[in-house]
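Memo subject: From amino acid sequence to C-alpha cells
Keywords: amino acid chain, backbone geometry, C-alpha cells, three-dimensional fold.
Body of memo: The sequence and its C-alpha cells, given next.
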Amino acid sequence: MSAKPIRVLVAGLGNMGRSHALAYHNNPGFEIVGLVNRSKVDLVPELQGYRIHPSFEAALKELKPDLCSICTYSDSHADYAVMAFEAGCDVFVEKPLATTVADAERVVAAAKKAGRKLVVGYILRHHPSWVRLIAEARLLGGPYVFRMNLNQQSSGATWATHKALMDTTPPIVDCGVHYVDVMCQITDARAVEVRGMGLRLSNEIAADMYNYGHLQVIYEDGSVGWYEAGWGPMISETAFFVKDVMSPNGSVSIVMDPNAKSDDIDTHTKTAVIRVHKAETGPDGKFLHKDEDLTMHGEPGHQELCDLEQAYVLKAITENINLERHMDDAVQSLRICLAADESVRTGRPVKL
C-alpha cells in the first residue's frame, strides 16, 4: 500500500455513486477530495462533510485528484474518463463503459496512452459466489448454453431511476453487460453473431426506447446464450432471476430464494445456493452423482460488494496489476450488448 492515501474525486451520487463514495470513505487507502453532482442529493451522515461540486471538469482542475470515480449516467462516461486520463488520473468507471463501441475503444486508448489504470464496474467479478459459479461452469467444459435474466418490477423511486437510465440506455445494455461478461469469462470464445428483440411497454419512456429486451449470442466455439431484462411496474415477478449454465457434462445454476423481490438490489448479486449437476450416467442409465448444492454462507451485500470492488481498484493501482484483459473484456461485452440493441432496432441479426 502506498504511504499516502489515493486522492479520489467521485462523480455521480446516484445509488452506485453513493455506495462507492462510502467505500472510499471507509477505506484508509483512499481520501475523498470532493464529490460531483449536478443537483443536491441526500447523503448518509458519513458523506455529508464533503463538498459537492456541480461541474466535473471544474472539480478535476481545482482538486487534481489521483483517481476519478465516474458513476454518472452512461452518456458522460467516455468524455469524463478521457478528461481524467488527460489530467493524469487513474479511473474507475461504472458500467457500461460507454454508449458506443467507438467511445469505449477511445477510453481504453486514452488509458493506454496515459499509462494509467482503468477499472470498469463489473461488480460480479468481485463476488466470491459468482467467481465460484464461473469456475464450476468452466470445469464442466463447453460448448455451453447460457440462460440468464434480471427483470425488475419497479415502481416509485426505482421506476424513476430506470426511466432516467433509459434516456440513453436500454435494460439489455445497462444490465446485460454484467451477464454477457460472465458468459465470456466462462467460454473464452469470440462472439460471432448477436440477435435481439424488444418492446416498449410504457408510454412514460421515449417512443424509440424499449423497457423489455431479449438478446441471443452465438460464440465461435458453438456456445449459445440468451439474456432478458425488463424494467417497470408492469414486469412480472415470475422467473425474474434465472442464472443457468449447461454443457454436455451437466449444469451449474443459481437457486434463488423463492421469497426474493425483483427490485431488491441485494437480490441482484446474492446467489443463495449454487446447484451443480453432473450428466454422467451408469450402465443402468441412472445418474452416478447426486446434485450438489453449494450454500454460499456470509455473502456480501450490496455495500460490502462495493467495498470489495474499490479494494480491488486500490490493489490494481498500488500493485500495478495488468488490466489489459479487463479492458478488452469490457469492450467485448459492450460490443455484444450494443449489437443486440442494433438488432432490436433493425430487426436483423448482427455479425461480429
In short: The two ends are 41 Å apart (CA to CA). The mean pLDDT is 93. Residues 324-346 form the longest helix (23 residues). Residues 99 and 204 are 22 Å apart (CA to CA).
